[in-house]
Amino acid sequence: MKTIVFGGDGFCGWPTALHLSALGHDVMIVDDLSRRAIDEELGASSLTPIASVEERLNAWTEVSGGKTVDFRKIDVAQDYDGVLALLQEYRPDNMVHFAEQRAAPYSMKDAQHKRYTVDNNVNATHNILAAVVESGQDIHVAHLGTMGVYGYGTAGMKIPEGYLDVQVIAHEDAEGNPVDPYPIDQQILYPSNPGSVYHMTKVLDQHLLAFYAKNDKLRITDLHQGIIWGTNTEQTKLDERLVNRFDYDGDYGTVLNRFLMQVAVGYPLTVHGTGGQTRAFIHIQDMVRCVQIALENPPAAGDRVKILNQMTETHRVRDLAKLICELTGAEMELVPNPRQESAENELHVTNQTFLDLGLQPTTLSNGLLLEVEETAERYRDRADLDKIPSRSLWTKNQAAGVPSKFADSDASQAPSSAEAPAG
């Protein structure tokens, strides 16, 4: 199959591109390299040294026995004509859409970053969908969403895969005349409750995807992903030039990877608030397998968007911190939470579709945790400890020191952890 990976130079996109290439896909990466530019803006580079795109691709050809991955530099959010021309030239079977700004803290830094996140993410998604329609091709689009579209409140039930069965009791007929109450059954998108501008863009994406699936019969899969942990996959471990990103800074670092990096450099584990938030997690190797499974099981033309919860387990953040402290002897420190969110929550999620399709989850284990810590230890000299604290605040009141309505007696709020739903 011919597959374009939009955002293929990023944390999720790069290992996905290599995984699909190893499976025999004809892969093209499309990226504007904006994530590298954000490193320069923040003054915070990946803990692991990231080679240039050209070095990465040449290294893959060497170690894979001659497989090639093509690269095009296109700003998907701004260059619609370039996207359309690429589709007309390349004629892919699949497109995997990672080309979005993926960090919640970065999206909340200030008005400029909020506007950039909305402009980039929503425009990129819409340009891709519009280009598929204008090209006249039957292309399966797999979009990387986030579990964060559901919010992090306690639902009192397992969160379904995208759609919720509801029953409305009607007391009037269509003309407004009173009648005996009768039930009306419907199925709706699960109510969204985004907790950041980044998460809000994924909610907007959901509605764009639903419209194009309905109106133009595009075949679309939306992958609602949990927080990624781990750094390398089978392919990125083959050569140091292929190594994946390891973000540890307060804007882009994901919570579990941040903890393990902090252990490696002797920095107390920064647990935001009470540590009482429960999050969904997935190992990076499972992430690329899920994308593979999704591409191998596309919806039919005319089907509604196929929504899959791309996660394998849930954990409370303070429990993760305690586990790592027990394994390593590290210390834990509660610090104020920069987010606007409840101090404690439960999270129950169904991921039955991926399990039914053959995913064998990689669950949290001491060995894998130590493997990530070893990666962090290997590159610890590259760490800038000043970049570890999360300094992006959700509201002006927080910056002014006004207590949040979510604050409790133990700490200000629950933990903050930049997700990695998109590369």
Descriptive account of the structure:
The protein is of the alpha/beta class. Helix content is 35%, strand content 19%. It has 13 helices and 14 strands. The chain has helices spanning 13-22, 34-42, 53-63, 80-90, 104-107, 111-135, 197-216, 255-265, 284-296, 317-328, 352-356, 366-378, 396-399; strands at 2-6, 26-31, 69-73, 94-97, 140-146, 163-172, 178-189, 220-225, 227-229, 269-272, 278-283, 306-310, 313-316, 332-335. The strands form 4 sheets. The chain has a 7-stranded parallel sheet, sandwiched between helices. Strands 9-11-13 form a 3-stranded mixed sheet. Strands 6-7 form a two-stranded antiparallel ribbon. Helix 4 runs parallel beside helix 6 (111-135). The longest helix is centred in the N-terminal third of the chain and has 25 residues, at 111-135. The two termini are 22 Å apart. The relative contact order is 0.17. The model is unreliable at 409-423 (pLDDT under 50).
